């Protein structure tokens, strides 16, 4: 599990560690790690450190201090290091070290900064780290914007300046780094969008903080974690023990969502899928997935007897394509009255947003909204949710008493009193109609197999993202493994090399990926499971 923390948690841990060490030890550890990563990058792009150009953007705090010391180490190895001192002050020891090593410094001047950035092989963003707050003030904001035109690689020191380290919020100009070298522990804002997409690939430098860290705020399961949680059939298994999932989805008007949700469940390994709906979706599901056992619901039945014909299930998926009228409401009421875990998605979420009494139940509930659906559930504008995803997914879990999986560029899973789980797989090609329906089926299958809502949702998101990447790469597992992942990994191979992440972590929709249809994602689930 990759764990991540807020700035306050990091500061508390640092204070405890610093009390045991001579002054300056942590900064020198951080700077040494940073310089080593930069030296490797320079060797990659220039063949050697000697003679390369390095630009330092230096703020007035310790983030600037790290940057100056790292610059000094690179200058000692023959790099031509020039610093823009953007603050009213600069870290004294760091500045002295850089000058003593032959580095050059100067105050902020837009033309000079632009010139430096055009020449540098590597630019270090040391404007602001965990001490940052709110939108960047001038001249930091201008410098952050100028980094977009840098010719070389942009390396963020600890955190990309302009990104809130605790939440990933970005309130104004912010550095978009190819690589972030972070110290001591991952900051939550590096894993959650929009911060995550500013951070690029993230490399952790150990400064000995580990024993002082509290419980994390955020955790990103690795492929090994997911593999350890996924159910596997044993010799004693039969279809009932593996888990029967009920799917109440689709309507005469919306039929595709039902086919996709059932596909997700079948391919994710449900022991059996029982599908209950109107006549037309039942006909289509039977045609595409003959494995599913289907029931045509009689809308004139009472809520108590509506699902009687369906048979026993261990978990329900409710909502994709269900519609939002009185008949759909009756189905939602019947499903949510059951004593088994229920996943509510799509139209089911609209029904629940209008009638929160549906959520008063004893068995676990998993809600899988995208930002628009969460906006309806919480009564908060969608943009606010997109800007502060971590805060809102936590709030939803607490307020609605459910496990909440918030979909989007970084999928988050929240449950009260647990770290928010961040998904690391996926590709922007997933942003196409119907892929969420597939996710609902995968999650339902895992719930039926007995995983908790929290584990089912986070494992399903991981498998779904992995399947999408395999599908986007043409369904060839071997080819996908040979290629590197997101833009940063492709260039620096800086991923953590964990199972799945090296070749299949979050993609950027570029290199070697092509558009996918939702059914392709369902079909690629077995290939994804084989990799875990
Ligand atoms: N603690 C440790 O043990 C270790 C810490 N380490 C390092 O220290 C970093 C934290 O250092 P820190 O606490 O000095 O804060 P930092 O991130 O440099 O920011 C403060 C500066 O930013 C400025 N500033 C703030 N907001 C701003 C805005 N919106 N717009 C513009 N300016 C803004 C603020 O300006 P001021 O408010 O003072 O005018 C001040 O100058 C941490 O990220 C890591 O890199 C490592 O060495 C490992 C050991
Ligand atoms: N920019 C993006 N990058 C990666 N994944 C995305 C992005 N946008 C959406 N997704 C994923 O695509 C899926 C879309 O689901 P959803 O919004 O429910 O669509 P639908 O209702 O059409 O099925 C979710 O799994 C979501 O996390
Ligand atoms: K920074």
UniProtKB/TrEMBL annotation:
Give me the reactions it catalyses.
(6R)-NADPHX = (6S)-NADPHX; (6S)-NADHX + ADP = AMP + phosphate + NADH + H(+); (6S)-NADPHX + ADP = AMP + phosphate + NADPH + H(+); (6R)-NADHX = (6S)-NADHX
- Record's superkingdom? Bacteria
Supply the SUPFAM superfamilies for this chain. Answer: Ribokinase-like, YjeF N-terminal domain-like
MF terms (GO), sorted A to Z: ADP-dependent NAD(P)H-hydrate dehydratase activity; ATP binding; metal ion binding; NAD(P)HX epimerase activity
The note on cofactor binding and number reads: Binds 1 potassium ion per subunit.
- Give the keywords, sorted: ATP-binding, Isomerase, Lyase, Metal-binding, Multifunctional enzyme, NAD, NADP, Nucleotide-binding, Potassium
Which intervals hold domain YjeF C-terminal? 222-532
E.C. no: 4.2.1.136, 5.1.99.6
Q: One Pfam family, please name it.
A: YjeF_N
Q: Which residues does the annotation say bind (6S)-NADPHX?
A: 62-66, 129-135, 140, 158, 257, 321, 370, 437
Identify the Gene3D superfamilies for this entry.
Answer: 3.40.1190.20, YjeF N-terminal domain (3.40.50.10260)
Q: What cofactor(s) does the depicted protein rely on?
A: Mg(2+); K(+)
State where AMP binds: 407-411, 436
Gene Ontology terms describing biological process: metabolite repair; nicotinamide nucleotide metabolic process
| Residues noted as binding K(+) in the record, renumbered to the chain | 63, 125, 161
Outline the extent of the YjeF N-terminal domain: 10-215
The UniProt subunit note reads as follows: Homotetramer.
User: Any idea what job this protein has?
Assistant: Catalyzes the dehydration of the S-form of NAD(P)HX at the expense of ADP, which is converted to AMP. Together with NAD(P)HX epimerase, which catalyzes the epimerization of the S- and R-forms, the enzyme allows the repair of both epimers of NAD(P)HX, a damaged form of NAD(P)H that is a result of enzymatic or heat-dependent hydration. Bifunctional enzyme that catalyzes the epimerization of the S- and R-forms of NAD(P)HX and the dehydration of the S-form of NAD(P)HX at the expense of ADP, which is converted to AMP. This allows the repair of both epimers of NAD(P)HX, a damaged form of NAD(P)H that is a result of enzymatic or heat-dependent hydration.
Q: Which HAMAP family match?
A: NADHX_dehydratase, NADHX_epimerase
Describe the family membership recorded for this protein in Swiss-Prot or TrEMBL.
Belongs to the NnrE/AIBP family. In the C-terminal section; belongs to the NnrD/CARKD family.
Q: What is this protein called?
A: Bifunctional NAD(P)H-hydrate repair enzyme
Q: What is the lineage of its organism?
A: Bacteria, Bacillati, Actinomycetota, Actinomycetes, Streptosporangiales
């Amino acid at each position: 599990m990759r764990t991540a923390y807020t700035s306050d948690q990091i500061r508390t841990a640092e204070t405890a560690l610093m009390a045991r060490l001579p002054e300056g030890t942590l900064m020198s550890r951080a700077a040494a790690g940073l310089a080593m990563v930069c030296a490797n990058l320079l060797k990659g792009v220039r063949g050697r450190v000697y003679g390369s150009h390095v630009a330092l953007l230096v703020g007035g705090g310790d983030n600037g201090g790290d940057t100056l010391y790292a610059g000094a180490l690179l200058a000692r190895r023959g790099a031509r290091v020039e610093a823009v001192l953007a603050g009213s002050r600069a870290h004294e020891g760091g500045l002295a070290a850089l000058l003593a090593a032959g580095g050059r410094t100067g105050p902020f001047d837009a033309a000079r900064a632009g010139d430096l950035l055009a020449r540098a092989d590597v630019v270090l963003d040391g404007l602001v780290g965990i001490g940052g707050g709110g939108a960047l003030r001038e001249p930091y904001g201008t410098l952050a914007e100028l980094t977009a035109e840098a010719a070389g690689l942009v390396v963020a020191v600890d955190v990309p300046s302009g990104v809130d380290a605790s939440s990933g919020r970005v309130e104004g100009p912010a550095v978009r780094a190819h690589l972030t070298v972070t110290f001591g522990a991952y900051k939550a804002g590096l894993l959650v969008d929009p911060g995550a997409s500013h951070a690029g690939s993230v490399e952790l430098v150990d400064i000995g903080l580990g024993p002082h860290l509290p419980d994390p705020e955020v955790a990103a399961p690795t492929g090994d974690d997911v593999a350890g949680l996924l159910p596997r059939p044993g010799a004693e298994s039969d279809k009932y023990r593996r888990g029967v999932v009920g799917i109440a989805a689709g309507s005469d008007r919306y039929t595709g969502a039902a086919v996709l949700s059932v596909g997700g469940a079948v391919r994710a390994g449900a022991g059996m899928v029982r599908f209950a709906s109107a006549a037309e979706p039942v006909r289509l599901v039977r045609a595409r997935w003959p494995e599913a056992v289907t029931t045509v619901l009689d809308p004139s039945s009472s809520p108590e007897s509506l699902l009687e014909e369906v048979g026993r299930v261990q978990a329900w998926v409710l909502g994709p394509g269900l519609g939002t009228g009185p008949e759909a409401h009756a189905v939602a009421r019947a499903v949510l009255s059951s004593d088994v875990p229920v996943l509510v998605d799509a139209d089911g979420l609209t029904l629940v947003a209008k009638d929160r009494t549906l959520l008063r139940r004893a068995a676990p509930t998993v809600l899988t909204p995208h930002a628009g659906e969460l906006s309806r559930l919480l009564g908060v504008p969608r943009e606010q949710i997109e800007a502060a995803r971590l805060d809102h997914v936590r709030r939803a879990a607490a307020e609605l008493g459910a496990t909440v999986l918030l979909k989007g560029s970084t999928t988050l899973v929240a449950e009260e009193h647990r770290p928010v789980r961040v998904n690391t797989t996926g590709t922007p090609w997933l942003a196409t109609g119907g892929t969420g329906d597939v996710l609902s089926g995968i999650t339902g299958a895992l719930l039926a197999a007995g995983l908790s809502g929290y584990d089912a949702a986070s494992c399903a998101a991981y498998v779904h993202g992995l399947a999408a990447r395999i599908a986007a790469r043409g369904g060839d597992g071997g080819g996908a493994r040979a290629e590197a992942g997101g833009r940063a990994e492709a260039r620096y191979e800086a991923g953590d090399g964990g199972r799945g992440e090296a070749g299949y972590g979050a993609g950027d929709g570029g290199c070697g990926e092509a558009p996918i249809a939702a059914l392709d994602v369902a079909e690629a689930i077995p290939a994804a499971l084989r990799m875990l």
